[in-house]
Amino acid sequence: MAKLKKTKEEIVNKAKELGVEYESKYQGCGQCTFSAIIDSLRWGGLELLPENMQDRLFCGLSLLSGGVAMTGDGSCGGVTGGVLAIGVALGISREMQATDRSVRRVGYETAWRGIVDKYFEKYNSLLCKDVQRKSFGKAYNLLVS
User: Fold this and answer.
1) Distance between CA atoms of residues 26 and 100, nearest Å
2) Which parts of 27-69 fold into alpha helices (H)?
3) Which residues of 19-40 are buried (b: 16+ CB within 10 A; e: fewer)?
4) Number of H-type helices and E-type strands within the chain
5) What is the DSSP letter of 78?
6) What is the pLDDT of residue 1?
7) Are 123 and 134 in contact (CB under 8 A)?
8) What is the pLDDT at residue 30?
């Protein structure tokens, strides 16, 4: 594993800073959360994937924002983007899963402890509409520009 050039706290703070910057610039929880995590890890010394691959994933994650295609009915884009970043970091490959299916449990537990349980603690849900209600007092119709 690569030796980090920054502390965990510095990397987390950078991810928070980039998340705010990216949300302001691009909008969309999924792609902005994912990119903030990947870019802060890169800044901290850990290159998880090449930038061109990150750009392709950014495209796909754009459609998961707003609870999937701006419906508000699916998982918060921050959850999906963050969990995808964890999956990329863990690197549990097809080959690994073909050999030992239980290896996925490491990923599930890491995603749960790293993101999912925090959403349940703060929002009591993973759904975009519920996160909006808790954060802003109401859920918005995101399909209306």
Assistant:
1) 39
2) 29-43, 51-62
3) beebbeeeebbbbbbbbbbbbb
4) 8, 0
5) H
6) 58
7) yes
8) 95
The encoded tokens of residue 15 equal 């991810």
Angle at 74 between CA 63 and CA 115, to 5 degrees: 95
Whole-model pTM: value is 0.90
Encoded tokens for 55: 């750009």
For residues 76 and 67, the answer to whether their CB atoms sit within 8 Å is: yes
For 41-46, which contacts have Cβ atoms below 8 Å and span 24 or more sequence positions?
A: 41/11, 41/15, 41/89, 43/6, 43/11, 43/14, 44/4, 44/5, 44/6, 44/10, 44/11, 44/14, 45/2, 45/3, 45/4, 45/5, 45/6, 46/1, 46/2, 46/4
Task: Please give the DSSP secondary-structure letter assigned to residue 127.
Answer: B
Q: Model confidence over 68-118: pLDDT tens digits?
A: 999 999 999 999 999 999 999 999 999 999 999 899 999 999 999 999 999
Q: How many CB atoms lie within 10 A of CB 143?
A: 10
Q: What is the DSSP letter of 75?
A: B
